[in-house]
């Protein structure tokens, strides 16, 4: 009996070992190779409450400003697609990513700085700004009603931030399907990731000049329809929100006209109704390569959430820095 118990104990230990090994290998094969330098509970010993402090900061700020979840999510996209997820977009100065016109409407910076100050007080020189950006976007989605996603941490902050790197690496709202595919594939992201991550537009807002090329309104208020993929009544409503001369102003419109502050699958339902705000949205439903996936998510929010959780981890793991390739900034807006 004693030998049997010893044998079972050894077998259980081996099972646990191989289970951990298998899960580790599965994780590495499922996500980009750059993710291999990350790990779950990276701050378990050095700063155990790091993720909780970021979550509390996001929750507090979003409670006062319901537009913040969309801004924090967009901030992650614009960071990770240029130089990887290394907080390079946070660096201030002439000719930095942050100074590029494509990033001037990006927001959420004060939330990141606020979380950083708290973390520096309790865990100095430990938690990177890059991790804060990723965690804040993750928490913003959950705060807005989306899924809770477990993401690995351990990103280092980059030292390079150039405005010239922005335009070639981010998706413009007027892009064709092929142009978007080229950008995503260059990052190691699939066509499926493109459809899933576009669902981020279920929250947030956009300036009128991001979609004003889809219709025309003259100084007398006369309306000219340009883009036939856009619902006419919706286009007419947009002209009221973006009157003539507003294209370069600070006027913004909600990405999702139905549930603008809720992270759900309404974005895909909007596409079916030809109410995608951007040309890059509408093409997802009009193109045969992605239409079926749009239909699927429009009819299955849980399916969208499951897919989002996987694609979000891939997004937040793009081009991460490790070791001497990066640093942990004392302040997110300047290098050490």
Record the SSE blueprint.
Layout: H1 2-30, H2 50-64, H3 68-80, H4 109-122, H5 129-143, H6 177-186, H7 191-197, E1 205-207, E2 215-217, E3 223-225, H8 232-241, E4 252-254, H9 266-272, H10 279-286, H11 291-299, H12 301-315
Antiparallel strand pairs: 1-4, 2-3
Helix pairs in contact: 2-4, 2-5, 3-5, 4-5, 9-11, 11-12
Commentary on this structure:
The protein has 336 residues and is mainly alpha-helical. The chain is built from 12 helices and 4 strands; from the N terminus they run αααααααβββαβαααα. The strands form 2 sheets. It has a two-stranded antiparallel sheet. A two-stranded antiparallel ribbon has the order 2-3. The chain is globular, with a radius of gyration of 22 Å.
Question: Which labels suit this protein?
Answer:
336 residues, globular
Content of β-strand:
under 5%
Helix percentage: 40-55%
Rough outline: globular
Question: Sheet with the most strands?
Answer: 2 strands, antiparallel
Order of helices and strands: HHHHHHHEEEHEHHHH
Which blocks of ≥5 consecutive residues have pLDDT under 50?
1-35
State the secondary-structure class. mainly alpha
Radius of gyration: 22 Å
Order of neighbouring strands in the sheet with most strands = 1-4
Please count the helical segments: 12
> What oligomeric assembly is this protein in?
single chain
Mean pLDDT: 88
Distance N to C terminus: 63 Å
């Amino acid at each position: 009996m004693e030998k049997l118990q010893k044998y079972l104990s050894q077998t259980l230990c081996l099972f646990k070992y191989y289970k951990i090994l298998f899960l580790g290998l599965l994780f590495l094969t499922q996500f980009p190779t750059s993710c291999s330098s990350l790990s779950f509970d990276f701050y378990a010993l050095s700063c155990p409450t790091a993720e909780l402090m970021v979550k509390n900061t996001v929750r507090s700020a979003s409670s006062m400003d319901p537009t913040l979840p969309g801004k924090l999510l967009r901030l992650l996209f614009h960071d990770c697609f240029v130089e990887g997820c290394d907080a390079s977009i946070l660096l201030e100065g002439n000719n930095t990513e942050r100074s590029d016109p494509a990033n001037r409407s990006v927001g959420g910076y004060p939330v990141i700085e606020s979380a950083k100050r708290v973390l520096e007080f309790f865990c100095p020189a430990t938690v990177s700004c890059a991790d804060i950006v990723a965690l804040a976007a993750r928490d913003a989605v959950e705060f807005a009603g989306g899924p809770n996603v477990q993401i690995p941490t351990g990103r280092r902050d980059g030292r390079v931030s150039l405005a010239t790197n922005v335009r070639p690496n981010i998706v413009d709202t007027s892009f064709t399907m092929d142009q978007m595919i080229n950008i995503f594939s260059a990052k190691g992201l699939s066509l499926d990731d493109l459809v899933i991550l576009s669902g981020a537009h279920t929250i947030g807002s956009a300036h009128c000049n991001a979609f004003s090329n889809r219709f025309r309104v003259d100084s007398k208020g006369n309306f000219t329809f340009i883009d036939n993929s856009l619902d006419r009544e919706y286009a007419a409503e947009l002209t009221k929100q973006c009157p003539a001369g507003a294209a370069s102003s600070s006027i913004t419109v909600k990405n999702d006209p139905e549930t603008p502050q809720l992270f759900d699958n309404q974005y895909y339902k909007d596409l079916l109704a030809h109410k995608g705000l951007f040309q890059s949205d509408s093409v997802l439903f009009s193109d045969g390569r992605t239409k079926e996936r749009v239909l699927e998510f429009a009819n299955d929010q849980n399916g969208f959430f499951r897919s989002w959780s996987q694609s979000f981890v891939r997004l937040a793991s793009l081009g991460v820095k490790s070791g001497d390739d990066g640093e942990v900034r004392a302040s997110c807006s300047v290098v050490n």
